[in-house]
Amino acid sequence: MRTYTPAVSRFVRRRRPAKLNQVTVNCGQRCHRSPARTQFTSQHPRAAVNRGHKVYHLAHRPTTSSWFGFSAQIIDTLDHGQLFEDWERQHGSVFQLPTLFGMKVVILCDPKAVAHFFSKDTYTYRQTPATRVVHELFFGKNLLWAEADTHRRQRKALSTPFSNSAIRDLTPVFYDSAYALKASWDTSLQSTTQDDGVTIDVQAWMNRVSLDSIGIAGFSHDFESLSGKSSPIVAAFESLGSAPSGSFMKVAATLAPLFPWIYQIPSGRKRELDNLAAVMTDIANDLMARAKVDRADKALERSIIGALIRSETSNSTKQMSSEEIIAQV
């Protein structure tokens, strides 16, 4: 979600440079040759090209609408992954689409291009205002929202819990969650009296696995969602995910590149986002309070919550404000 530079153009044939004032980048769409990139499907990274950078001609898909391009089609499509896979087969792993009012979107499906895009610091690639508004609504002013010096400072503060050795030490946590998931599924299968088995909502269970694993590994707290314990954050996410997108949100998504503030207009989805933010803030405050009481616990030293506590009292370049710390959680 940052500024697109000529470095990515090495993956395409170099042609006569085109002078564009702005172009956006959609990176990591689900493509059939790289299932690992599905994690970026729900987010559409967008970026603006700095004046003076060269942007090379890419294969592009013609559109019949000079006003909206493919914006409306993308928003109305239920399976975005399949849509972009079809386009990739026709135009290659790096191509561009016309969107709202003549703006252009560069689609990256090449694994090396995706790796390059996300490995660069935020001085090279900048988020568009619309993307930053969405990130702030969902997560607050955390590492996903931050750029430039702020991003570097926050990343330094969180470097310890994401080191290779720290991640290796957390491997048993994910195994434990996998075994707990298996045990829950086995119980469901053994308790059913139906001849045709039992229906399992895999996505819902994966959400529980993620919540429990992240809670234990990052914050030394077990949400126990795999054991059936209810959690306000799970309820808030399920409410947000199950609510259909209304006409207003489709219009907002279409116009957001030009009018980022449109996401701030009160609506049903905005109220759900505010509720989710309030629930996450309450949980973050509770986790921070517990961690400060158990500061002597060695398990906190290399955890995310431990790094956040240290950054709050640090006098170095790693110091973060209380608002930033809560947003990271």
From TrEMBL:
SUPFAM superfamilies to which the protein is assigned, alphabetical: Cytochrome P450 (SSF48264)
Primary site of residence: membrane
Organismal lineage: Eukaryota, Fungi, Dikarya, Basidiomycota, Agaricomycotina
Top-level taxon in the UniProt lineage: Eukaryota
Cross-referenced InterPro entries: Cyt_P450 (IPR001128), Cyt_P450_sf (IPR036396), Cytochrome_P450_monoxygenase (IPR050121)
Keyword NAD belongs to the record: no
Location(s) in or outside the cell: Membrane
Protein name: Cytochrome P450
Functional pathway: Secondary metabolite biosynthesis; terpenoid biosynthesis
Organism: Hypsizygus marmoreus
